[in-house]
Amino acid sequence: MLTLATASINGPYCANCFYIYLKEKNLFAFTSDKETRHIREISEMNKVAGTVYVDTLIIGKIQGIQFTGVIFEPGDELLARIRAAYIMRFPVALLMDTTFWAVEPYFIKMTDNRFGIGRKLVWEKGKESFFSGKSK
Q1: What is the pLDDT of residues 70-122, one digit of tens each?
Q2: What's the half-sphere exposure (Cβ side, CA atoms, 13 Å) at 38?
Q3: Strand 47-53 and strand 27-32: pairing?
Q4: What is the CATH number of the domain that holds 69?
């Protein structure tokens, strides 16, 4: 699951979404109706934050990311690519009348305790490769 955080004059809000990640485009993609609070709020501010993590209670197996980025409604070729990948992962989406959304991350902080407890890798768009990211 991807947790998406938005903010507006009404305050912050979070939504949980099934998602795919397009590695070649460095995009997260998910579906959501235009009437949902989190999608309505992106018309006010298209900057979002979020998390993706492995659910575990074992400290040595904790893995996850925190990110910030920009959300948008994909069009044309990108929409077709997202739709195909999403339906491959979640075939039930064929039955849904919904809208696809994409998040382009600008900052990612990854925690993966398999590399050592408390070790963080940071990636920022245009600064450096994620997997050779600086340790924090």
Answers
A1: 999 999 999 999 999 999 999 999 999 889 999 999 999 999 998 888 888 89
A2: 21
A3: unpaired
A4: 2.30.110.10
Tokens of 113: 């305790």
Nearest C-alpha neighbor of 83 from the set 105, 100, 71, 98: 100
- What's the Rg (C-alpha) of the chain? 16
Domains in the chain: how many in total?
Answer: 1
Contact 48, 5 (CB under 8 A): yes
- CA 25/CA 60 separation, integer angstroms: 30
Q: How far apart are CA 51 and CA 61, in angstroms?
A: 16
* Full domain range(s) for residue 108: 2-135
Say which residue the tokens 């991807």 belong to: 2
State the pLDDT at residue 99. Answer: 96
DSSP SS3 for 23 = coil
**Of 104, 102, 103, 122, which Cα lies nearest the Cα of 112?**
122
Give the whole-angstrom CA distance, residue 106 versus residue 52.
15
b/e burial code for range 41-60 (CB count within 10 A of at least 16 → b): bbeeeeebbbbbeeeeeeee
